[in-house]
Design a protein that fits this description.
Blueprint: H1 6-9, E1 32-34, H2 36-42, E2 47-52, H3 62-75, E3 80-84, H4 88-100, E4 103-109, H5 115-123, E5 127-131, H6 135-148, E6 152-153, H7 159-165, H8 167-176, E7 182-186, H9 191-207, E8 213-219, H10 224-227, H11 249-259, E9 262-266, H12 268-282, H13 291-302, E10 313-318, H14 326-333, H15 343-349
Length: 353
């Protein structure tokens, strides 16, 4: 039985050769879920799709880039990889390193990573260190390590990560038959908006499939691109985008400007509202940071942004699975009531009287 991922599927668009050992866990081909109930709730006739990247092998979009990063690292003779992470990169790097048979070192900002993600990195056998600082400080340390030791950095500043992540744009176009009119995406370290725009441009050059406007959304308390300066102490419940000085800042601005799009903010309350709507209207469980794309879509729609294109096609990227942060689901849903083991108590507790 064939076992393949994005490198095999899109080889002609990727910097690989016959000498490249393909390190894959079968990533990619994630669902593009129509969201009609969400569209009705928002109003205005938009045609909305959710690119559910939580269905990748380690539960996030990071796997698309990590298959490329590890494949090229092994090709170049590397025996160890390192990353700074708010969680998803850690899980992905650890898994793909294990698959490749190389060691992985992960630096996490202490107290700022959802336990679901930490557990993954540990389960895959990575050496995990919690840094008494934020993500930006952890990334600085990772860069210094790579300057001093022979170890491959696999954060999104590794260009092969961007190459792999751009395949998400290819899949969207392949399924829709054309690029969407608008592409909504969370923005943290800004590698993903960079990668999607790169993918759309390459597919358009090859297939004349059109180009979307890129709509990126940062959490209000972690919005350096919107504010125009680094945020020393970023704050948001959406830990995956809790980044104060994005590594791909300039390329994210280029994606915004070249596409005629925007990068804006959404509040934590707006993120949580969208997070709950995804589960209750569409049966899609995504981590809170993922919901920033939908929160941004709702903010734009209610602010009249789509007035000139009321029936536009919009794709929202959901970057990670909800099980990455199960505690958030419990916190936002309230306490589960305990009832006596009697039918009357169950009927009363369920509100069936």
């Amino acid at each position: 039985m064939a076992f393949s991922g994005v490198i095999q599927r899109y080889r002609s668009f990727l910097p690989v050769s016959d000498r490249t050992p393909i390190v894959t866990l079968g990533e990619g081909s994630t669902p593009l879920v129509p969201a009609p109930r969400l569209a009705r709730e928002i109003g205005g006739g938009l045609r909305i799709f959710l690119k559910y990247e939580g269905m990748n092998p380690t539960g996030s979009f990071k796997d698309r880039g990590m298959t490329m990063a590890l494949s090229k690292a092994v090709e170049e003779g590397s025996h160890a990889v390192v990353c700074a992470s708010t969680g998803n990169t850690a899980a992905s790097a650890a898994a793909y390193a294990a698959r490749a048979g190389v060691s992985a070192l992960v630096l996490l900002p202490a107290g700022s990573v959802a336990l679901g993600k930490v557990s993954q990195a540990l389960a895959y056998g990575a050496k995990v260190l919690a840094v008494d600082g934020n993500f930006d400080q952890a990334l600085r340390l990772v860069r210094e390590l790579c300057d001093r030791f022979r170890i491959t950095l696999v954060n999104s500043i590794n260009p092969y990560r961007i190459e792999g992540q751009k395949t998400g744009a290819f899949e969207i176009v392949d399924e829709l038959g054309a690029a969407p009119d608008f592409h909504c995406i969370p923005v943290g370290n800004a590698g993903n908006i960079t990668a999607y725009w790169k993918g759309y441009k390459e597919y358009h050059a090859a297939r004349r499939c059109g180009l979307p406007k890129m709509l990126g959304f940062q959490a209000e308390g972690a919005a350096p691109i919107v504010r125009g300066h680094p945020i020393e102490d970023p704050q948001t419940i959406a830990t995956a985008i809790k980044i104060g000085n994005p590594a791909s800042w300039k390329s994210a601005e280029a994606a915004r400007d070249e596409s005629g799009g925007i990068i804006d903010t959404v509040t934590d309350d707006e993120i949580i509202s969208a997070y709950r709507m995804l589960g209750r209207f569409e049966g899609v469980f995504a981590e809170p940071a993922s919901a920033a794309s939908v929160a941004g879509l709702i903010k734009c729609a209610r602010g009249g942004f789509f007035a000139a294109r009321p029936e536009a096609t919009v794709v929202c990227i959901l970057t990670g699975h909800g099980l990455k942060d199960p505690e958030r689901a419990i916190k936002t849903s309230g306490e589960i009531p305990t009832v006596p083991a009697t039918l009357d108590a169950v009927v009363k507790g369920a509100g069936l009287q």
